[in-house]
Specification:
Layout (H helix, E strand, L loop, with lengths): L13 E3 L2 E3 L3 E3 L15 H12 L4 E8 L2 H4 L14 H13 L3 E7 L16 E2 L13 E2 L2 H21 L3 E6 L4 H6 L14 H4 L1 H14 L4 E6 L10 H14 L3 E5 L21 H11 L5 E3 L6 H9 L5 E4 L1 H5 L3 H6 L14 H7 L28 E5 L3 H12 L3 E6 L7 H6 L7 H14 L3 E4 L5 H5 L5 E4 L3 E3 L10 E3 H5 L10 E4 L3 H12 L4 E4 L13 H13 L3 E4 L3 E6 L2 E5 L5 E5 L2 E4 L3 E3 L2 H9 L3 E3 L9 H13 L5
Bound molecules: flavin mononucleotide (FMN) and iron/sulfur cluster (SF4).
GO molecular function: FMN binding; iron-sulfur cluster binding; metal ion binding; oxidoreductase activity
InterPro entries: Aldolase_TIM, FAD/NAD-bd_sf, FAD/NAD-binding_dom, NADH:flavin_oxidoreductase, OxRdtase_FMN_N
Keywords: Flavoprotein, FMN, Iron, Iron-sulfur, Metal-binding, Oxidoreductase
Length: 652
Amino acid sequence: MSRMTAFPLLFSPVRLGRLTLANRVVMAAMETNLADPSGAVTEALVAHYRRRAAGGAGMVTVEYACVEQRHGRGSSIQLALDEDRLVAGHARLAAAIADQGAVACLQLHHAGRQTSPRFLDGRQPVAPSAHESWMFRTTPRALDDAEVEALVGQFADAAARAVAAGYAAIELHGAHGYLLGQFLSPWTNRRDDRWGGDAQRRLAFPSAVVRRVKAAIGDRPLVYRLSAEEFVPGGIDPDEAAAAACALVAAGADAIHVSTGIAERLDTNVDPIATAEGWRLGHARRIRRALAGAAPVIGVGVIRSPAMAEAAIAEGSADLIALGRALLADPDWPRKAAAGRVAAIRPCTSCNWCIQRLGQHGGIGCAENPAVGRDQLDGPAIRTNRPRAVVAGGGPGGMAGAVLLAEAGWRVTLLEASVRLGGGIDVSARPPFKDKLLWYRDHLVRRLAETGVDVQCGTPADAAGILAHDPAFVLVATGSLERDGEVAPGGIVVPAYDVLAGDRPLGPGPILVYGGGETGCETAELAAAEGWTVHLVTRSTARQLARSAELVYRRTLLQRLHAHPRIELLAETRLARVEGDQALLEGPGGARRRIACGQVLLAQGRRPADGLATAMAAAGVPHAVIGDARRGGRIGDAVNDAWDAIRGLPPA
Ligand SMILES: Cc1cc2nc3c(=O)[nH]c(=O)nc-3n(C[C@H](O)[C@H](O)[C@H](O)COP(=O)(O)O)c2cc1C
Ligand code: SF4
């Protein structure tokens, strides 16, 4: 990596125990669901980490690996290292990382109460105390003394296997409310024995694990990942975390990795889009001060720009910077940053499409980087004969598809009916707290220019116009149209989509939003944020609001909606009709209500705008329909559709 760099601290070497890392960028552990069902390493997993390591991070931390699969698995598919048969796969994984010049680190983990009997062949989860997990809808069984002692040994055994596999460093997953954190936390450790009862005894299990693991790994560095605040009443607070960090370093940890949160507060771990950049650095700074140089501190959490990472080191918040999702969206973040090519970084927007995929038990993916989770596959075939392609639609799928085609050697024309590029991204970015999405739009616009795509805005993509280009391939990314509902647009009744797209003004109020899906909820929040009184009307129950939204985002969105003084929620209520400025509603049990409104915004769903597909089929032109033109979805669905379609094209 270049010695001349715009970020000299970030790209300076750093000591970690007896190792020296080439720079201070660490890839944070992120589960991928790419292991096989028995917990073994797969080729997809090796390819995933090889690609991340090739991007230039000083150390790459492999996702949480289970030290005891009978009770410790945290998900249906999880990497493991609790048996000798698993060592060979890990050896391939560690070598793939080291071959790219990064230090290979493995995170060791036991889920404790944060798992479900579904992942444990029906067995009841175990924990320090029988403290219910509402998230997993289960109450664990309290471990007995001998079981706790045995677990210390199981962490050490897994660490010894990791050394045999060739990992150069180990991280203990003591954060995010898993077993190690459960022992430390007064919220989950209600014991009164040598493993709990006061702060000193709550430290006994994590300290014992640190000592035994350290003994098992010799002079390799041991990182301890800690939640510096759990954000639940009675959970670990920053003072307790600082004291624990000092004790864990005294027990043998070579670095403290400062994260936050537990399963009940996932929003403080895999931060949703609304969360401010770098907000956890204050927690890291506090622990770094308490450690007073006894061990380096790794800071993490929504660190997206090299400038923020550099400043965090300069200000003394952290010695190393861990990047999670930023390295999914762009594994070359470190190399680009080191070379000062900051604008070239594909920016993670915290959209959490990746998390949503894991929640649905799929392999890891990224909204912006479709190769994630499939790095073992070849990308789109390169065309040397420069065939012509037309992309119809300048939303996220169309823009990303046009860039992919151009990168693969096609001569690409992109036709967009509106006067500007953006489409669905602009619509999604309009509600409060979602402006990070515009980073991605701006990135795509830049890439379109760099790859020489002929962008024609203000040009509706009709069949004749497309065929005039004589394309060898057409990507239909024409988005969606308003679905016909019981109440039609007209007068004060306007599709919410048109307002979000900026095609129609918002207001005047009071505003009635009809539809309790994600769009309806977000539109209600937007209208309230702009000062209007809002009636959010949905035929569904209140529990079903925004039900298809990503889990972490949904929870924070609903909290804000319910707390907003200007939003009235009318659930199980139908909008019968609108007469002048009066909305006529039918509530539960047929109760009727009349509300005076300045505007009624319809958020009743959209349907694919896929008419061009028929025309292209009739003309015999090879084509693919993607994104909302195929089926309603998120930005990640459209972009990944584009990759699938282009990758699936037959070779020239
Ligand atoms: C898909 C995904 C999987 C994750 N899996 C783990 C994990 O296995 N172990 C862990 O300690 N943290 C895990 N995390 C949390 C990340 O390590 C990181 O702390 C978090 O994403 C915030 O950092 P970021 O904003 O740089 O992504 C995961 C996060 C994501 C997005
Ligand atoms: S899916 Fe979204 S949040 Fe996840 S890495 Fe990609 S851009 Fe970031």
